[in-house]
Known about the structure:
With 665 residues, the protein is of the alpha/beta class. It is built from 17 helices and 32 strands. Helix content is 31%, strand content 23%. The strands form 8 sheets. It has a 7-stranded mixed β-sheet. Strand 30 (641-644) and strand 31 (647-650) form a beta hairpin.
Amino acid sequence: MPARYHLRFQIHPGADALADAAALAKFCADASVDEVVLLLDAEELYSGHVSGAAEDLWFDTAAGAREILLDAGIEVSLNPWVTVGHADRGRRDTLGFAPMVSPTGQVATAQASFACPRWRQWVTAHYGRFAELGFRVLWIEDDFRYHNHAPLHWGGGFEPLMLQRFAELTGEQPTREQLVAAVTAPGPPHPWRARLQQVWRTAQLEVARLLADTVAERSGGRSQLGLMSSWLDTTSVEGRDWPALFDALAVNGRASHRPHFAPYTDAPGRELSFSVWTLELQRALRPAGVASEPEIENWPHTAWSKADTQTWSEMVAAQLAGSDALLLNVHPMHARRADRYPRVGELLLRSRPALDWIAERQPHDPVTDGVYVPFKQDTAAHVHTRTADLDELAAGPGPAADFLLRSGVPITANPAPVAVLFGQLARALSDQELRQLLGGGLLLDGTAAVVLAERGFGPLIGLREAQLVGRDQQTTEGPYAAEELLEADDPGALGMLLSVNVQPALARLLPVDGVRLWSRVVTPDGRYWGAGRFGHSNTLGGRVAVLAATDTDELPYSDDGQSLLHAMIRFLEGDRPRLPLVSGGPYLIPQLSRVDGGHRLAVANGGADPARPRVHCPQPPAQPPRATLLAPLAPPGPVAAELVGRHMTIDQDLSGRGWLLLDWE
């Protein structure tokens, strides 16, 4: 089945609306677009929550455009621009909604509280009215959240109505200041944090159920709801329960999901790692029956915001993730006439050959493989803070996933023999879950190692002592500066240095005797400061690898660093190595899946220069893999692949943001 394009576009109310809709229908036919998602009262046209004659005008515009598009054979969905509201931006509420209030007491001028009864009546009536037209999906924007509501610091959720709900739940009546202080208090979490998250979660689920019931009734079951989502770590701060939210939104057991997975503007190719892991981790949280339509967006204006090459590479990442459709936001919100942007049509037509090739060969729900990256949706409830800031509660899988993917190590959201656990995510796992991971292969950063040692797992991770030392904290030896390599596959690398000079903190590690020490941390004058990276075999039959670094985003990438990480992964695999590891250039980002009883390794070149991927496969196939090169905006083509010992290679370069697909039995 070919890839599906769902194009988000806004038809402006007015005398030209029907002509603009006809032009849009022709554009879609020419650009092979399957569905239009009509934007409603969005961005520059938004003056506040719409009602009365203004809503009537939008309703008539949407109804007329829908008929023209359906007559042209194009499916139609609807994307109202706001639920509670994205940002104030000078707008003012005119409907009497209880406004959002930030942790610091800022009061929004155009954004409503989830607890406001008047707003709940408005949003259900608004969605219900448009549901009567029978759109396939009515989308809920990503303002359906508590965080990120400019100009409020962090966001909302501290309104008097919410504080009242908190009091009803707990029997206690703290002021906003007292509640914020408790929720963000340094050290172990105060019980009020989980209680506040429960209040937020309950209010959001109530609204979701109201919307689902209303849309089901007013559409006669013809329409379903879709949800755009934000980052996993920030939604964890809100206490979001992903399966419960999708269940609440489901109409006749169906819902849709529009994951945010890529930057809106130009970004280095290495950011493709974010796209790969975000799609993978959100897939694991999405219940069966929920369709995935990732958001392809270059906001606010076409290729002036994001190069077509980057957009194409992100579309490929989404298609490789088994997406049901690609939701395209590639026109300006105020474009009016789609045919004024022929380059957008060219982008879609030039992208389709590669996307169709993948769609016809990639399973809808691919079974991925790699290093297991666990994530608990309630992680923020367990985080220990250092400052009184809600942002510090955001702890997610990103640093670990980026560190692995950018070094050529595939990852998965499925349990696997080797796992990775970085940062305060380690606090969210139970003792039983940790023991299970420790019985296999487990990669830890310095923060996670200190957390596990505090929880009594020191002997199982090979540590006598561990403590975090801040960058400006004084020690007898002096400041930490670099890791000195003590073991390497390349003898010439012995004694070479890997910088830890800009780490905000480092774990001071004292390993037990007999560990495998890959590096040691040294001061600027070469004095020993502590263990850098080491491996340990424990009494559970598992293997653990620990690095002292606490912020892998601030570790410089290099050939030596990649080789060291690959050696650590092979150590963790023990006597059953199996994962293909990619080298041959900077930022060669892999995605590994099982397809038709075999394996498919997709490799994106996240660097700007051409590269020749080299794949070390400890269990090589009998024959060289089938290799397909996906060059940006070009049709896919076969490329010769070689199998030399345990290494797979190809005989030509992979361009920046290009993808290589290797298939073998």
